[in-house]
């Protein structure tokens, strides 16, 4: 019966199209009753979808995904507390806020990268709060590792505020080398949409110019 159920699920998924990329084979359907939007897991960031990696592992489309109830405190400098690049002045899918101090603003991809690196030591990068912060991040779709921090097992790992600046494809085809990057075109560098710890040139991973997100093999 189990094998038969799996086959049925695969057959049903093959008939569903992803609302983000419009291709068939979307295996994830929004949890909201009455919503039939389906999507591929790699397309989730592009479609602003949220998957909760705990409990029932629920997934939501952009319309029904959870929103942070906490409001970001207005600041003179709207910068990410992790990468120091500009963030929005309000909470959104791409911009998140610590529910405890309400002062730490960060990009979704930055806090996701921090969560995977920090593991069991994951907490707010500003106020160090862990419990409410952890639950909020899980609810908002941040995947958290249960492993020890990466810097304890890998002394050569770089600081967390250093953004990847090289192509990690198994074979880099760029004439300028792995660290060469351009603003657009085949040598534009895309970061992994889940961990933001690896990057690739568009051409090295056969990505079209219209592709806005990419996931590394580890994710």
TrEMBL record:
One of its GO terms (cellular component) is nucleus. Residues 80-128 form the RING-type domain. GO terms for molecular function: zinc ion binding. The keyword RNA-binding does not apply. PROSITE patterns: EPHD (PS51805), ZF_RING_2 (PS50089). Keywords: Metal-binding, Zinc, Zinc-finger. It holds the Pfam family zf-HC5HC2H. The keyword Lyase does not apply. Residues 1-65 form the PHD-type domain. This is PHF7 protein. It comes from Piprites chloris.
């Amino acid at each position: 019966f189990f094998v038969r159920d799996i086959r049925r699920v695969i057959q049903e998924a093959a008939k569903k199209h992803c609302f983000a990329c419009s291709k068939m084979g979307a295996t994830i359907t929004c949890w909201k009753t009455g919503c039939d939007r389906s999507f591929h897991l790699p397309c989730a960031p592009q479609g602003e979808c949220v998957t909760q990696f705990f409990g029932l592992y629920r997934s939501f489309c952009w319309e029904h995904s959870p929103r942070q109830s906490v409001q970001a405190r207005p600041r003179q400098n709207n910068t990410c507390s992790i990468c120091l690049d500009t963030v929005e002045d309000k909470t959104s899918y791409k911009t998140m806020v610590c529910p405890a101090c309400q002062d730490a603003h960060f990009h979704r991809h930055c806090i996701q990268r921090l969560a995977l690196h920090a593991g069991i030591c994951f907490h707010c990068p500003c106020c160090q709060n862990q419990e409410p912060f952890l639950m909020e991040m899980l609810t908002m779709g941040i995947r958290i590792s249960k492993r020890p921090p990466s810097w304890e097992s890998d002394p050569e790992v770089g600081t967390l505020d250093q953004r990847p600046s090289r192509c990690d494809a198994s074979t880099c085809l760029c004439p300028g080398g792995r660290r060469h990057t351009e603003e657009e075109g085949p040598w534009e560098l895309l970061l992994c949409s889940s961990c933001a710890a690896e990057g690739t040139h568009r051409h090295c991973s056969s990505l079209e110019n219209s592709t806005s997100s990419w996931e590394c093999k580890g994710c």
